[in-house]
Amino acid sequence: MPRRSVPRRLEHEALAPRVKVWLEAGGHYAFGFGLSEILRAVGQAGSIKQAAVDLGKSYRHVWGRIKQAERVLGRSLVQTHVGGKDVRRSSLTPAARQLVEHFLSFRTRMMQAAEEEFARAFAPHPSGTSMG
Fold first, then answer.
1. Domain-wise residue ranges, the chain
2. How many Å separate Cα 125 from the centre of its chain?
3. Which residues contact 127 (CB under 8 A, 6 or more apart)?
4. CATH 1.10.10.10, applies to 26-113
5. Percent of the chain whose predicted confidence (pLDDT) is above 90
6. Residue bearing the bigger pLDDT, 59 or 128
7. The 3-state secondary structure of the chain, one letter per residue
């Protein structure tokens, strides 16, 4: 396996924190930003197929991610309606809408907390130098 080369850090590049937030249930991945984007796209398009197109993903990938999350969470996230002329055949369950809303709010707060802690930890030293 080839080694990754690590680029030399240029003096003018400042450090920046990065945080990845996800939820687990029973030690298994249950929900994260990617799935929240999938569910938002399904809710907006009213179709799993159209959501996949809008996201540039395969239908199988989008459907699989939804079904995996439903298994881990033990609840339905998407309601599908077969047949009829309406192109809006899929909708989010109330639980899915709430989960997306609460997760995105929680993620935003975690990222803000990381920024604040980073600012404290890497603040310029009294001598005028900083770690960043």
1. 26-113
2. 35
3. none
4. yes
5. 72
6. 59
7. CCCCCCCCCCCCCCCCCCCCCEEEECCEEEEEHHHHHHHHHHHHHCCHHHHHHHHCCCHHHHHHHHHHHHHHHCCCCEEECCCCCCCCCEEECHHHHHHHHHHHHHHHHHHHHHHHHHHHHCCCCCCCCCCC
Does 27 score more than 60 pLDDT? Answer: yes
Assign 57 a pLDDT band (cuts: 50, 70, 90): very high
Strands 28-32 vs 90-92: parallel, antiparallel or unpaired: unpaired
Beta carbons of 36 and 20 less than 8 angstroms apart: no
Confidence at residue 14, expressed as pLDDT on a 0 to 100 scale: 84
Q: Are 126 and 84 in contact (CB under 8 A)?
A: no
